[in-house]
Fold each of these.
Amino acid sequence: MSGPGDPRAGRGRIWVGLWGPAVAWLVHFLAIYALAEFGCLSPLAERVVLGASLVAWLVLAVTVACLALSGGVTWLAWRVDQRLSAAPTAPATAGPEADPGPDAGRFAARAGWTSGLLFTLIIAVEAVPVFFYLRDCGVKALP
Amino acid sequence: MSVGTAAPPAQAGFERTWQGHPGLRGWLMEVNNQPLGKRFMVTAIIFFLLGGVLALLMRLQLAVSDNDLLGPQVFNQLFTMHGSTMMYLFAVPFLEGLALYLLPLQLGSRDVAFPRLTAFSYWTYLFGGVLFYASFLVGVVPDAGWFAYTPLSGPRYAGLGVDFWLLGLSLVEVAGITAGVEILVTILKLRAPGMTLGRMPLFVWTMLVTGGMIIFAFTVLLTATILLELDRAAGMAFFDPERGGNSLLWQHLFWFFGHPEVYIAFLPATGIVSAVVAAFARRPVVAHVLVVVAIVMTGFLSFGLWVHHMFATGLPELAMHFFGAASLMIAVASGIQVFAWIATLWGARPDYRTPFLYLLGFFLIFVVGGMTGVMVAVVPFDLQVHDTYFVVAHFHYVLIGGVVFPVFAGLAFWLPKVTGRLLDERAGAASFWLSFVGFNLTFFPMHIMGFLGMPRRVYTYPATLGLDAHNLVATAGAFMIALGTAVFIGAFLHSLRRGRPAGEDPWQADTLEWSVSSPPPIFAFRRPPVARGRHPLWERGRPAAAVEAEHQRVTAALDAAPTTWRATLSTDPLTGAPQGVQWLPGPAMSPFLVALGLLIAAIGVVANLYILDLAGVVLAVGALARWLQPDEALLERLRQDPAPRAAGLPVFTTGAASTGWWGALCLVVILGTMFGALLYAYFYLSLFSDAWPQGGLERPGWGLAGPATGALLLAGAGLWGSRRAFHGGRRAAFVGLLGGSAAGAAAAAVLVLVELVRLPFGPGVNAYASAHFTLSGLAILALAMGTAVAAATTHRLERRLERRDAFDTLQLQVTTMLHGFALVAALATLVVLHTSPVLL
Amino acid sequence: MRSRGVALALLALALAGCPAEHPQSALHPASQEAGRIARLWWVMLGVYGAVTLATFALLAAALLRRRGAEAPGGGVRFVVVAGIVVPTVILVGMLFYSLRVSTALHLPEAAFTVRVTGFQWWWDVRYPDHDIVTANELYVPVGEVVRLELRAADVVHSFWVPNLHGKMDLLPEHPNQFWLRAEVPGVYRGQCAEFCGLQHALMAFDVVALPKDEFERWVAERRRPHPEPADDELRLGQEVFFSAGCNACHAVGGTDAVALVGPDLTHIGTRRTLGAGTVANTRGDLAGWISQPQVLKPGNLMPPTYLEPRELHALVRWLETLR
């Protein structure tokens, strides 16, 4: 096996494409959790800038960055899939669910962009609550 | 690919090599995945039955209001042991046992990656479970719940029972983590040639993700249980509010494990469902890629749900809603799987035999449990139903519907493979209907009981709540479930003697385990199989591609070979291309002895006999050293063997091509997770403290930490240089650099230890001191491990430097990973401990 | 299978009919807060109940279709629509709805504050603005927001009066704030909802919602000093209280008894129950509680008190005058 169909040619890209969106989600979730748990009890929550607390702004910034990361990886995996599907080694019956043959890269790329779309959606949905708590974290604990 | 019965003389050596030793000694030394997988499953089922009996007793107490049948003490012990048994001793161990038994058969391997680790895992699991139940003999049964919330489980409020619980649980966690490593590396490395990532069966995918989840989740729980035991046995203050500790810290750590735990049990169950659905529909599961993605998604998202058990603790609402949103989105992953199964069954007209009946039960129950699941994820709604019988109903719908029913479907499906005999269909159907109807009678009324004011974990309730009828129905239903289970067990025992022979493939299923005889030979495959598609048995007639011809050549060379040592093919994690002939160990006593040492140490802690602890640790470390000691004569024999050469594959591989490298990586991840959990605890405690260090303690200075940091940096440089010296063949430089690196790590460990000893306060003063001592202590332990590994490697490789081969290179790689990790972790710990008090 | 969702709806509807019989029910709200949450439940039951039925219908269709049929729209598209698109739309909609309910449940302006402290296994209740201390019951004025400061003295407990609101944990580290606003006069039962040890099941309390003027009268009566013992028996009762050592654990306002180990007894005479909802506060049960508390609620901190019948009777009578 050689040429563009050879997964060894782009092994790093294949692994990044497969796990990248999930890792972007993980980074995003842990970051917004830490901001809400630790930030809401800190002075960050009291500083209001342009109608929202610094905590809210940071959550939004992290969200935008992780959406970009996840979206970028999705696009990368999609590109790999396109390239590998066009390769001469690809089986003729390459439907979206067909057995990818011995070429593992195409499966990984396909799973990568599929999960990329879903994780991007999830990152976006998980950030929704911040719009309901722009100025106030809803802290119930008393000092 | 089927295996003949009469072995020609040339193959007798091969079969003899794979046989275990006879007698009790052989039973203790067993390392093969098939007998150990069966032991795991049988042990787990016994615990399941015990846990069920405890549940029946609870239902008797709750059958009528104001009942005094059992009283509060016994009832609290019962629900603690019921939950702990089902979660820790049944669900995960059973599924791990199933995976250990089944994975090699599905992957086309002859055993799992680390057979001795399988044995160790089984013995620690068994010992942990026995320690749990030994509390009944001593009469101090754990009574703080399966979740053991602090401070109720702390030294002030709970007795010896909680120590039994914590130490038994620690052993079970170690067993779970090692089985997780085993599962992960086996799937990545020991697949049949041609089994690319895209051709892995869905059950294997679920176990791959589960293995990874176990490593993170169980390690965090192990850390938490150690911290709580330090509070209880060593007077530390992590969870003691009066000394700056925090009870919510326990809840965070516990649920960071506890929520993934549910999916650790559920994901393999979905793997079982996918296997049974495909076999009964006689077609591949629709939308394979999407189902794989859903499995991966579930694995990741399950780590973003833990706070949804803490909605009533008063966390900032913003944080709670992030978790609420994540809890809603994980339902999408379940939705993908459910509708993929429905699409697969569309027009498939399956036979309604026992596995499929249990599968239908799973569908009907699990969907309802999933709906109540997205309900309790809604923060304001959860404030009402949290800790009520609504939640009891919800998670029994999810865990019995989503795990136990698939497990029974899986048992009915795979038992013919394990025993060679089919279950009686009428008995199977009867057990299903009893269990299904009984289940709904028991748990459906509990939804309503929750709304009408019945909290969880109460041993009695007043008649004024109007809950007598609901509870009586629930109790009746519970006994019906018990009857259904009894019928199933009876049918199983009956099948062992009287069941119809199953043949190789009673269900015309697709995966490789159905290609060998039932029961399978102990080596599973005389000739390693080649995976020619996602469904190898459905694609036998397909013409072979060029790659497959090459794979056939390789496997032919390993037909009934090698004959004097156990071996299987190791393959590329992505492409499934053969990479080496992997040596597998034969019978060994050391795993049993290490587990025994841990058990003795645990008993020592419970009994407050520190001499026993010492004896246990010495035994465990000694046996472990023996286990890890390379056998030079064996290595020489492997180098000379003709079989690998015939296959054109190396016996020793390095880096990501070897199983050892992956095993070491897992160990690094586990240790890294422990450090991470402890650092989280450290910062969480500081978050709720007015001052850090608490209580006006002095900030740690750099007097000793400075030199320790220097020693660590030098040790790192030495390690880096030693690799170059090794590859350059410069013996003196190699010995000096790696030996020096070991010495540097040892020096740093001693400096940190001296710093601890010279501190003007002890670890029990307050939570800050506890965290400081424990983090430093973990760094010292890591450095001790790094030192031992680096010193042993220096000693061995010094003699092998001129004749160094791939095995020696691998040893240095593994040493670099472990020792290097210890250096980095210790350095990070020192920096955090000495800078954060200044910064915070 | 399909009937299950319907049965749930019918059962729940049937239950909704009779509020008086359900003193501890989340489905019989007596406040805006509990009402909002109950409405949230009914909406979710409708939406997710429909989803459940639709899923069962699809499963039935799949099993009953002729051999060889394909899922509608072809396999993968069916999974994408039914498993991703439809659930996402529904779940995101529910997320917005739940966020709106949640923000509507923010603490409103409160009339006064009550401090509730959880002990194993009873509730200490203090009205700092009114200078009233009691236990295991909470009197509140109808229609007014009562802010609660919840804390635990030992282990984690949880405050839950389902007819009025959801629950909130009492932690040993720091107080949490919560509130109640009863809209309908009545007695609502609450109970500890976080497992807190041996007698977790017997850690209940009552919330008594009184019209505003009655609440004012209740406050005034509690603030009136106790009369001096009017007869010899009452004087004996008071003496026994101290000689038998009751004061080692219990406080009685206006006397030398100031201990904080057990519930404050300043208003024990008006208490509705004994032992945090374990038994009704009748003369017989009060005497029984004093002499054999471990029979009624095994494991509680109170030791048995051995008294002559005459002394016990006097003590009970004196306690009954503490109103």
Note: The mean pLDDT of chain C is 92.
Amino acid sequence: MTDDLLHAPLTIEFGFNRTTGPVVGAFYTGLREGKVLGIKGADGRVVCPPVEYDPTTGAPLTEMVEVGTEGTVTTWSWVPTDREGQVLPAPYALALVQLDGADTAMLHVVDVSSTDQISTGDRVKIRWADERQGLLTDIACFEPAGGAA
Amino acid sequence: MAPQRNVAVVSVAQTPHRRAAAGLSETEMIEPAIRQALDQVGATIDDIGFVCSGSSDYLAGQAFSFVMTLDAVGAWPPISESHVEMDGAWALYEAWLKIQSGHCDTALVFGYSKASPGDLPRVLTRQLDPYYYGPLWPDSVALAGLQARAMLDAGAITEAEMAQIAERNRNAAKDNPNAQLQGSPSADELLTAPYVADPLRRHDCAPITDGGVAMIIAADDAARKFSSRPAWIRGIDHRVDSHNLGARDLTRAPSIAIAAQHAGVADGKVDVAELHAPFTHQEKIVRTELGLGDDVLVNPSGGTLSANPVMGAGLIRIAEVANRISAGEADRGVAHATSGQLLQQNLVCVLEGE
Amino acid sequence: MSDDRTVSTFPEGVWTQPAVTVPALEGEPVQRVTIPASMRYDYSPGLTQTRFLRGLEQKKIYGERTPGAEDVYVSHRGVDPVTGVPTTEVVEVGPNATITAFCVVHIGFGVNAPPTPFVSALFLADGAVVSLYGTVGEVEYDKVRIGMRVEPVWVDDDALTTSMENIKYWRPIDEPDVPAEQLKGHM
């Protein structure tokens, strides 16, 4: 009998099948059609990606509106190495992007090859996936739109 | 709620914190800390009215992993027990409520994890909204980088300050035998290192740690029986900020300020504070939201930057403050714990000696 | 806003949410998405369970107990679950065992499920105080009894690994049943 420690690769995998509800569902449906939807908050500010309830008051939100497909980087960080599941080959930037017409920012990735090519305040635009199927990844990534805000 | 009963921390024990607790199951890893917490006050599990733990199956890679850990408590015949899939600080909160409600006078609380079997920055992506964030698998370091950048852009911190925070914490850890990282090059030297996730350098990030902490709390007479100088919990409160990162001002965490107000942080002089900040810039946010002055000794243990057992690191903050109070080194201290990413959920605990 | 839409299975009116107005979209609205998540680990059971699994590789069932204690646990997690004290003494148990509980299974789940109906059961190895899980073979399902004496049937020697799968199933042996009273505390 030996005390040599056993170890083994273990993969835990779930094919989560999620219902979207009407708000996330409409957002995903919009992405499939190349549109981005937000939702009007209680104070009239547009929340994008849209949420079912007002982030401040908790009131149910009902009025979805279309926002732009270009926006402004509000903050970013650098992803230098690949990790399984990530949607771009590294390196790339992870960023919060406030789309034109929205008052909050969405999390996504920006396809730039070095940190010289991105700054807070930069204008970026959506690069759509070749085949869109109603998922967040219908936005393949953002890319520089050229010109400062 | 106004506390009905005086509850104190009477015993704490930690495992050594290491990159990998090789050879030990989670049960075997946490057992010595549980044993020590009981032994050093001469207690057995029969003296404990309630047991509550904080851990995560995602870290262990094993469903209901906490049930196995209960073997280390001595859970047969059946004990009164509960678990939170959060930092052990929230397990402490549940145990504190249990005592407040009169169901018991004593409780054993522990929090721990073995992060080593998995890829921690990737595992933590599963804490996020599955519709809008999860599909991007945004690792925890890159996410923290968004917050650090927001602070740098806003002039709320500088990279030099971040390096100083790292240096101060890790040098303090030289006095902490359990710490994983002890000692630090100077801040100037740290700043010459490359970025690991611009704007974060390696020193800005907490290590990945296997380890845990166990604690016994008790009410009134029971507390005095176990300890000659109990660390009384004078206030404890937890609050949450929006999980919607794009709707938050990432340079702030208002939930900390509200929790601090309800816990009564400002009601007296603070001698010592232990802040749960897995990234250097987050210490500044926590410190600012708590309203701590420059005279407060912050993270004499070396903080989370020196040992970061996820699901234990918050409870350790409370343990470290309690230790200093029970040792007579401090009369009043503040501990902060966080759960989730970018300081999303926050707990503040005020402890006092007599 | 007036046509409230029920969003739960509660009785109508218990929980409703105002309808959402959406700019014109074409095609079927998305209502359901599949977002897979897979996590990879390098899992280790720890040294104690390693000892148990290495024993199985040699067709031996090892339990453990705290020094001086009578109760032998198998499989064990390194501590006595009654006292919480580390179990540092290794004790071989079995291989013969007694069925302490069983279930006749008529619906098989998973890729390795035997043909139905089959019997899953708990087996108290001789010398142990807690039971191991497995299936019963070489006997009709309606002949299985609590108290029945059994032995493990191992896979071929060249197929032995550090796994519970080394025991294909347990089969009856020619010994009288253990009276149920003697199994109290183990069921």
Note: The interface with chain B takes residues 33, 35, 37, 39-49, 77-86 of chain C (CB under 8 Å).
